[in-house]
Amino acid sequence: VGVLREWLEGEGARLLSERGAAFEIHGAWRDLCPQLQPGVDAALRAAAGASASRRIVLLMGYDGRDEIRDAARRLGGPGESPEDFGRATWTGGLPPVDLLVRTGGEPHLSAGFMLWGIAEAQLAFPEVLWPDADEALLAGLIEAFARTERRFGA
Questions:
Q1: Euclidean distance between the first and final Cα of the chain, in Å?
Q2: 3-state secondary structure of 52
Q3: What's residue 96's pLDDT?
Q4: Can you give the pTM of this predicted structure?
Q5: Which pLDDT tens digit goes with each residue over 40-53?
Q6: Can you spell out the DSSP letters for 10-38?
Q7: Would the N or C end of the chain have less CB density within 10 A of its end CB?
């Protein structure tokens, strides 16, 4: 945190000012790293009046599910708790996704596929196309997942 604070107060603030870049910070950073506040303040001052065409966005203590719930809450929808919101999604009756496999080797998710449900999932993008995915491939992916130590951001 000290290094980031120093960068935001020094080199980061200088770059923001010189380049006319905006600065944003989102997430639970105030709870996790309150000592970062002076650096954030310096960056915000350096970016005051900057164009949004260039920006540095810092996500710290960020959870996309919090972002989605907050947006729903601001729009008057469900969002009282993660559990309430999760139940309100179309796929709310499904268990959490542990492993998502997208065949075809393309490391992207079409149409924001299950953003809420895959928040903590491991993603696999094997090169094989779906019709050619066989039991050995799927078993290998599941075995690799089982050997993975889940740290949930820690």
A1: 15
A2: strand
A3: 82
A4: 0.65
A5: 999 999 999 887 78
A6: THHHHHHHHHTEEEEEESSHHHH-GGGHH
A7: C
Tell me the two tokens of residue 137: 């491939």
pLDDT band at 75 (very low <50, low <70, confident <90, very high): confident
Residues composing the chain: 154
Alpha carbons 47 and 17: distance in angstroms, whole number: 6
Which H/E stretch holds residue 100? strand 99-101
Q: In 3D, which of 61, 116, 79, 70 has the Cα closest to residue 94?
A: 116
What are the tokens at 117? 């449900």
| Tokens of residue 30, six digits | 């105030």
For residues 23-46, one letter each, b for 16 or more C-beta atoms within 10 angstroms of the residue's C-beta and e for the rest, the string is bebebebeeebeebeebbebbbeb
Q: Which amino acid is at 81?
A: S
Which DSSP helix (H) or strand (E) runs through 99?
strand 99-101
